[in-house]
Amino acid sequence: MELKKIICCLLLLTLQILPIKAESYCVMSGEDQQVLEEKDMHKQQSVASISKIMTAMIAIEKGNLQDRWQCSEAIETVDGSMIYLQKDQMVSLESLLYGLMLRSGNDAAVEIAEHVGGNEENFVAMMNEKAKEIGMSRTLFRNPTGLDEKDGGNVSTAYDMALLMSYALKNRTFRKIAGTKYYTSEWNYRWKNKNRLLFSYDKSTAGKTGFTKQAGRTLVTSAENKQLESIVVTLDMHDDFRFHEQAHQRVSEEYEALVWLDKGSYRVQEKQFAVERKLYVAHKKGTGANLRVHSHIEQGEMVYELQHHEQSLLYRFPLAASKKTTGERL
């Protein structure tokens, strides 16, 4: 009996020290999109259901959450994860988005695409157009679900998916839905979010899970500590939730949020522009600020190029009237 206990203890210790292997991953600061850690982050592969982050964003930006309609017959041929919609069932876009993000419902994804895009083909074109706009240069979407057995699925990289999550988190509706632990649908189904980090890690803010045989386990999560939000993307990693928690914790311990531009109105080169919120960069604790800022006017915008720790960030501020503020990587 004692020998069995010793063997069990040794096995547990071995499991704890084994390195976590992943096909690729990216750890990024959400605000300024700095890459803090990575392995083969530009390697392309099927990304499975984490591509539903894009499905959700197109629905939120192009649709009306209060829209209600009857489900089409298209859902009758859907495979994989489901929220078990029925043909002619009355649904709202809002409930479908919760079913999409919390339970990864492929039937919800197809129904959203049919309603918002008119058909799946149009909706996928919208997904790819948005990917190009965000800067996801190594991404191709083929469907709204992430299934990959019939058409090869949605191909992307850990870096591109981190860019997408950074973009999505700036949308309050997405952030609320993707960070919800439990939701009761209008037809009284109670859903629990598949993102276990929301329940096990108190700094966790949002995320999306994925899995197919071709893609393996895929996972996108975000966490926030003192204004510093980190994004972790792993592709084809078995022990992904443990890795994500450890990566987020490393970021919170090793980095801090540094304000480089405060909220307010500014006048530069006789031109006025507004910054509606404080802008932060992820700064490694115990090191010099090492910030260099260059500005110029381009097509009605004040453009700031921020160089920080060998990474270049580009921020655009519409002049005078508009309050919109954006930031993107060069």
From TrEMBL:
Single GO biological process annotation from the record: cell wall organization
InterPro entries: Beta-lactam/transpept-like (IPR012338), Peptidase_S11 (IPR018044), Peptidase_S11_N (IPR001967)
Keywords of this entry: Carboxypeptidase, Cell shape, Cell wall biogenesis/degradation, Hydrolase, Peptidoglycan synthesis, Protease, Signal
Residue positions binding substrate: 208
Active-site residue numbers: 49, 52, 104
Domain of life: Bacteria
A single MF term (Gene Ontology): serine-type D-Ala-D-Ala carboxypeptidase activity
The UniProt record lists the keyword Cell division: no
Ranges where the Peptidase S11 D-alanyl-D-alanine carboxypeptidase A N-terminal domain occurs: 19-237
PANTHER family: D-ALANYL-D-ALANINE CARBOXYPEPTIDASE (PTHR21581), D-ALANYL-D-ALANINE CARBOXYPEPTIDASE DACB (PTHR21581:SF33)
Family, per entry: Belongs to the peptidase S11 family.
The protein, known as: D-alanyl-D-alanine carboxypeptidase
Organism: Amedibacillus dolichus
